[in-house]
Structure formats: C-alpha cells, structure tokens
Amino acid sequence: MMLVILSYMLASWIRLDFFEGDSKNMAGISTKTILLAIAYSLVLFLLLSIFGFYNTTRTRKLTWKARTIFLCVTISTLIATTVFFVFRLIDFSRGVILVFYLVTIILLTGKYAFMRLVLRRFRGNGYNLKHVVVIGTGKLAKQYRDDIAKESELGFHLIGFVGNQNLLGEEDKWLGSFKELDSILSSPDISEVIIALEPEEYSGVWQIIPACEKNGVKYSVIPFYNDIIPANPVIETIGHSKLINMRTNRLENMGWAILKRGFDFVSSFIGIILLSPLLIIIAIGVKLSSPGPILFRQKRVGYMRKDFQMLKFRSMKQNDEANISWTTDDDPRRTRIGSFLRKTSLDELPQLINVLKGDMSLVGPRPELPHFVEQFKETIPYYMVKHQVKPGMTGWAQVNGYRGDTSIEKRIELDLWYIDNWSPLLDIRILAKTVFGGMLNHEKMKT
C-alpha cells in the first residue's frame, strides 16, 4: 500500500514536473488525492487477496506474481477512472493516471523480484527453510527429491524418507518404516509432510493421514497418477463423492472464452484490412504461377473434433495427395512462388478468414488432417486433448521450433502445456515471437 501511494506521488512528479517542467503545477498532490490514493491501494489490496496473491506458498513463480499484479492493477485502475468520471470526484490528468498505472506495476513487480533475490540468499545460507519429510521411497518420492534439489531457491530442506529402506540410495536418509511414523512425526522440527506413495502402497494412506492429523503436521499428496494429472485440475463435489476434473482449462470459463474470441475477431478483421494489398499481390502471383485456384481448401480437425475447411494460398501444383500427405523440403509439387510462401509462412495468411469465422484462433494447437488424426490418436498419448481448444494459426509448439516435419510427441507435449497454462499474456507473447522471427521456417527454397 505504501508503494502504491509512492507510485502516485512519483507519477504526479514525472508527468507534471519532469515532463512539463512546471514545478508549480503540482496540484495533483494534495490531501484529497493522497486519501484517494490510499482508498485505491485498499481496493488493489482486496483484488490481490481475491486472486490468492498473498496466500503463503513458495511454489508460485515470479512470472505468476507479475501476471497477477498486471491484471489486478489494470482492473483497479479501470475501476478508479470510471468512478472519477461518473462521480466527478476530482479533475485528474489522464497523463498522471497512465504514468501511475505503469509505475505501480513496475514498483510492485520490482519489490517481489527483489524479495526473491533476498530470500534466495537467505535460504542459500540455511535460513527461512521448510523442513519436509517424504513418506514413500519409490519413483515419485525420488522425483520430488530431485525437483526440490533443482529449485533450491524455494527453500525446502529434505529431512529424510519414511518407507522401504531397500529402495533408497546410499545418499538418501532413511527415517524409519510406516510403523514408526507416529514417533517420527512428533518432532517439532518437521514443517510439512509429502505423501508420495506408489499405487501398490496406497493401502497405507489410511495409517499415514491420521498420523499427520494426530501430530498437527501439514501434509501434501503427490498422486500416483502424477504424470497424467494436468497443471490446474478442478475438484467438484456430488454428495460425498469428490470428482477430479482431469481435463479442464481456463477457456471453459465463459469470460475468458469471450475475451479470447473478441480479441481474435477484432485482430483478424483489422489484419485482413491492413494486409489486403499484400493478399492481392500474393493472389495474383499464385494465379500466374500455375493453373488452379488461388486458395487451397483442406479439411482439418478442429475444436471438439469437428472438421472444418482450412484456407491457404495454394503453394503446389494441383495433385491428388494433398489430403493424405505432408510436403517435404524437396517436394516436386511446390511452385516457385509457393516455395517462397511456405518458407515465409505467408501461405497461412488466408487463415485470418478462418479466425474471423470462428473455426480457428490466432493462437492454439495447429490443426491436423483427419487421416493423421486417426493415426496419431492410436499411437501418441493424449493426442486428442488438443481438440479441447480451438486450433490456431500459430502456437506454443511452433514458436519453439516444432513445426512441419518435427517430433509429433514434442509438439503435443508443448500443446498440452499451452492448454494447461493459457493466459492472454501468453497469447500475446506467442504472437510477438511469431511476428518477430517465428514466420521463417527451415524449409528449403525451390531453385
């Protein structure tokens, strides 16, 4: 809250004094405006609390903190400007509000970045640590051990393992068996317990959880299906039954879905208008390159496994293999202009029409031919999950180099990461990487 008030004072100084050079024009700072800044800081504090910003957890990344600050400051600034305008509380400089908005984001994000650096130093010296005991000695338990070792800045200190001693290595500290659990957990030095049991050990959970509860020790569970559980599962309740929704994503939320669709519609509409001269030039070039239509229509599998006609500029001579095969670097079917269009990804521009219609999104997993979908769903785990969101003109896999004739398994891994971690900022990041360097691919030009 103090940083927010400081942000307003800095914004007034930067906008009214530094840029305009009028040190007398500092009416922006007064008792009334400071009181309003305090009220604003309370609103921002409440918003951050609602978004879980202050929940005590070490596992939140700094990127999550920065995204949450950006979102909450944006919402609170919009609320404040609306209130000022409607109720005419005070005449505010729009320049001051804009600078205040930017300075608040910078100062708050900078504060948490600095705190992370300080905590990393403290934890590296053995302070501010959480001392954990892992119950289990199998693959999941060792995976947790390795994970916290890689992220030592989180400050987790592994005291030892409880379970089958024979499954541990010489460097792992064994604390005892399940039978000794009650006496082990009675130690006040234990901050948290991690239950990481293999499927065959789960009968012991009825002994482990009561022991944790009895000794008042906080515990977390790594489920034995850890490798297939998504990043953000949703738990629903029907009576006494708790259902874990294993495949949910933010775009199932109507608000986020409307936001993404609105952005797609406006951006594709503006894009078609601004790029129309280029589209006309490419269309003429395609028409002159070889006999056939300008646009190439190809059936692809899209949202909810429904087929749609995806548009491209035709880059090859007319042939009968278009719906059952991929192109290669030396594909003889390519035309000269088609080779250039494919190299620069300009052949994909007509998909702006698909985005405008709602068949596709600007960002999402790339759609595939029905023939290959039927093949991949039998051989690649989780392949069909990508169809739970709209396909995109570009995607997380593509900007990370996995496009064309590359590993399908890796592309699906990246597509699923995108679905689990979707946010408006992630879409903007992908679009920026696509425009600034992501349109050129490794396909060879036809000579």
Q: Strands of the biggest beta sheet: in what spatial order?
A: 3-2-1-4-5
Q: How many DSSP-defined strands?
A: 11
Summed up, the helix count is 15
| N-to-C span | 64 Å
Q: Strand fraction band?
A: 5-15%
Report on the biggest sheet: 5 strands, parallel
Helical content stands at: 40-55%
Q: Which residues form runs of ≥5 with pLDDT under 50?
A: 23-27
Question: What does this 3D model show about the protein?
Answer:
Strand 4, helix 7 and strand 5 form a beta-alpha-beta unit. 25% of the residues are buried. With 447 residues, the chain is an alpha/beta fold. Helix content is 48%, strand content 12%. About 1% of the residues have low confidence. Helix 2 packs across helix 3 and helix 8 packs across helix 11. The chain has a 5-stranded parallel sheet with strand order 3-2-1-4-5, sandwiched between helices. A two-stranded antiparallel ribbon has the order 6-7. Strands 8-9 form a two-stranded antiparallel sheet.
